[in-house]
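User: For my dataset I need records formatted as: sequence, then structure tokens, nothing else. Please produce one.
Assistant:
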Amino acid sequence: MENRPDSDYMAAFRGSFTSALRWHHLDALWERLRGSPEGWYVYAVGEAPPAETASAEAFLNFLTEIDRLLRTEHDEDYCGIVYADDLQEPSMVKIYDPNNLGVVCGYSENPPLPGWVLSRIPPVDLQAERPPPNNRRRWWQKLFG
């Protein structure tokens, strides 16, 4: 699929998002996602976008592993690096890499891309400006081969 500015995916990606600011907000978001694990695309920005949705098992495993990674590497008393289009009924979730944050919140002409995007809409290539670090690629490959 082509990265067209008018695509459904890009419209959703550029839409309004709300942060899971505190860790308990993230826990609640994960619970909502775990309650409906079918039909999600799991996209690691910098890799080829997936053509198919993840299996429920792979999706649930990703949630467990990304939660572990965020809590280990984002050593803050708040989360603030996971955003959903709707915290109650999410259809797109942006997860920023704690080791590549740049200016995630606030205004920026060229905000950083998230490390991972979960969506109900087939993703398009976001053309990451630089490939993810090798340790992130190995982590991703371990999960999704």
